[in-house]
Amino acid sequence: MSEPKLIVISAPSGSGKTTIAQEMLKRYPAMIFSISATTRPKRDAEVHGKDYFFLGKEEFEVKIRRDELVEWERIYDNYYGTLKSEVDRALRNRVSMLFDVDVKGALSIKKKYPNDAVLIFIQPPSVDTLTQRLINRKTESHEVLRKRLDRVSMELEKGKEFDYCVVNDDLQKAFSDVDAIIRRAIS
């Protein structure tokens, strides 16, 4: 019988973690995606409980004080985090959960669920390649791009603490490598 696991995928922005996470959800339809909580305003097309759990700042801070979050971070002026109740519900129901979080969040998940979490770090082939990917996707302002790149050395260093590292220099191979890790973890 398969064991439910918390499959945590993390990487510097532009490394392909979200693309890989989305592909793994297609390959493992019984696995659920961890929906983050946030204090940022809801965008028009977003749905509470599907895209994010949208919380007020005070409500989020109460959850921090009550230790109701597996991990959380303040990014710019908003909080983002993972509700412990959602993770516990998945494990209780024997369902594996996939996370797409930053490296610090990933390490927090492993600390709180050491026997259930499997950490997969998606590494770019080089910092130059990563920089070019971020520039080419044209989704960030120059300032946001700079902030993302300022984090890369810290993220690469923290990635050494993960259970697995997959270099994404060929997306199809990265899909296969991550798929093999998940298959071993849940069997």
What structural class should be given to the helix and strand makeup? alpha/beta
* Most strands sheet: 5 strands, parallel
Strand arrangement, major sheet: 2-7-1-8-9
The tally of beta strands, per DSSP, is: 9
How far apart, in Å, are the first and last alpha carbons? 7 Å
Structure commentary:
The protein has 8 helices and 9 strands. The protein has 187 residues and is of the alpha/beta class. It has a single domain, classed as Rossmann fold. A 5-stranded parallel sheet has the order 2-7-1-8-9, sandwiched between helices. It has a 4-stranded mixed sheet with strand order 4-3-6-5. The radius of gyration is 16 Å and the shape is globular. It starts with 5 loop residues before the first strand and ends with a helix. The model has no long low-confidence stretch (mean pLDDT 92).
